[in-house]
Design a protein that fits this description.
With 292 residues, the protein is α+β, with helices and mostly antiparallel strands. The chain is built from nine helices and nine strands. A four-stranded antiparallel sheet has the order 4-5-1-6, with helices on one face. The chain has a three-stranded antiparallel sheet with strand order 7-8-9. β4 and β5 form a beta hairpin. The longest helix is centred in the first third of the chain and has 25 residues, at 71-95. 21% of the residues are buried. The model has no long low-confidence stretch (mean pLDDT 88).
Length: 292
Amino acid sequence: MVQYRKTNYVVEADIRGFFDNVSHEWLMKMLAHDIADKKFLEIIEKFLKAGIMENGKYLDSEQGTPQGNGASPVLANIYLHYVLDNWFDVIVKRQCEGECYLIRYADDFVCCFQNKREAEVFRQRLEERFKKYGLELAEEKTKILEFGRFARKNRERRGERKPDSFDFLGFTFYCGMDGKKQFFRCRVKTSKKKLRSKIKQMKEWIKDHRTMPLELIFKTVNAKLRGHYQYYGVTDNTREVKNYLTQTKRLLFKWLNRRSQRRSYTFDTFYNGLLKTFPLLEPSIKVSLFYQ
């Protein structure tokens, strides 16, 4: 949407405690709109009001969708379809003179606009819309960004700094330029927050399982690396994916040397010995985000 459409502004929004604040009353009305089977609706309503167990204590659930259940994300997705998706397509788009687009996955979404005024009006109306259905925007995480093919030049002309970036689904999106042809590129990289989280998870796993057989340790680490590459191995993100591999090697070197009281590996025996015996998967670009 940003790369090839007329996007000049992005509304980055975050819903505060979405899964805990879904209104049962509104959700049942939405389900009844498409489901005629009353018995099935009764089962869903009982499921919603069944409550949850937390630390051995039973808690009533007067609102929200129960976490950890397969039906929870489905019901939450239906809720946002009516509250946000359908409203955006039927009402917002028709009232905008410029182009506008909504990209949503679960409760994460961003909206792209051609005109600033329409982005500002949408931001205000979005808050009112959510309030009607028992939802609340996280003010500190909700903002309008000047973003797109003209953002850098426009901001330079006004003496302002480069365009802000925004995070979506674990990636940071930022305005860049194609190095050879010097035209606009919407670039992506692993968000700093997500990268820190992934490195911390890898550290905890290696630390807790460092006494396992080496073959099993490296087999599991490679599986984790493969999963990371499959998701984050996209256009422009090679540097951050390689950084994840580098950090993983450092963690292995550190914690495998703490398998016993005596140091097991030197820098040379680890990198030129152990990693030759148990090689780690090298990163590669799995998905191209742009048209060829």
